[in-house]
Design a protein that fits this description.
With 191 residues, the protein is α/β, with parallel strands linked by helices. Strands 1, 2, 3, 4, 5, 6 and 7 form a seven-stranded mixed beta sheet that branches. Helix content is 33%, strand content 25%. The chain is globular, with a radius of gyration of 17 Å. Helix 1 links the parallel strand 1 and strand 2. Helix 3 crosses helix 4. It contains six helices and seven strands; from the N terminus they run E-H-E-H-E-E-H-E-E-H-E-H-H. The protein has one domain: Maf protein.
Length: 191
C-alpha cells in the first residue's frame, strides 16, 4: 500500500510508533542545525526544530504527501539536556536526573495544505542512580543517541519511578497529538 505521509526523521522509534497506530509512511531524513538559540525557551526550541525539519523535508520531497516531523528534549531546571557526546557527558546528565523529576517536551509539526503544530509535555521521575549503574547503562549503547541520555522504552525503564504525561511523547512522538494533527489533514487512525 502507498504511504499516507512522509516522516521527516531517521528515528526508528518514530517510525515504529507510526506503524503501531497504522499510519503508512515513507521516511525521508533531513539534516538541520539543532542547536538551541541563545535564551530560547524549551517549548519554543522543540517547536522550532520540529517545524524546521518538516520545512527542510518539504523542500526536498516533491511527492505532495503531508510531512510529519518531531523533536523531543529532556528539560531539567529549565535547561535543555541534549544527546550525550561521550561517557562523561552521559554520567553528568544521568547524575543530574538521578532522584529528580524532569520534563520531556515533544513537539510535532505536520505540513500539508497548511502547517499544524502540537506540543506534549510529560514529567518523569527517576529513582536514585549509582555511578556504577550509569556507567553500565552507557556501555549497553542505548543512551548514546538519546535526549537526556536515556530511552524510556529500553533498559532505562527500570530507572523511572513515576511518569505523568505521554509515554510515546517521551519516546519521541506523542501519538495523541500526532493523531489529532493527522485528523486535521484528513488522515484518521480508526475508521
Amino acid at each position: 500500500m502507498s504511504p499516507q505521509i512522509i516522516l521527516a526523521s531517521a528515528s526508528p522509534r518514530r517510525s515504529e510508533l507510526l506503524k503501531q497506530i497504522g499510519v503508512r509512511h515513507r521516511v525521508v531524513s533531513v539534516d538541520i542545525d539543532e542547536a538551541p538559540l541563545p535564551h530560547e525557551a524549551p517549548d519554543a526550541y522543540v517547536a522550532r526544530v520540529a517545524a524546521e525539519k518538516s520545512e527542510a523535508c518539504r523542500l526536498v520531497d516533491r511527492s505532495g504527501l503531508p510531512i510529519l516531523a518531531a523533536d523531543t528534549s529532556v528539560i531539567l531546571d529549565g535547561r535543555i539536556l541534549g544527546k550525550p557526546e561521550d561517557l562523561q557527558h552521559a554520567i553528568e546528565m544521568l547524575s543530574r536526573l538521578s532522584g529528580r523529576t524532569h520534563q520531556v517536551f515533544s513537539a510535532v509539526s505536520l505540513r500539508g495544505d497548511r502547517h499544524w503544530q502540537a506540543l506534549s509535555v510529560s514529567e518523569v521521575r527517576f529513582r536514585p542512580l549509582s555511578h556504577q549503574e550509569i556507567v553500565a547503562y552507557w556501555q549497553t549503547g542505548e543512551p548514546c543517541d538519546k535526549a537526556g541520555a536515556y530511552a524510556i522504552q529500553g533498559l532505562a525503564s527500570t530507572f523511572i519511578e513515576s511518569m505523568a504525561g505521554s509515554f510515546s511523547g517521551v519516546m519521541g512522538l506523542p501519538l495523541f497529538e500526532t493523531a489529532q494533527l493527522l485528523a486535521q489533514q484528513g488522515i484518521t487512525i480508526l475508521p
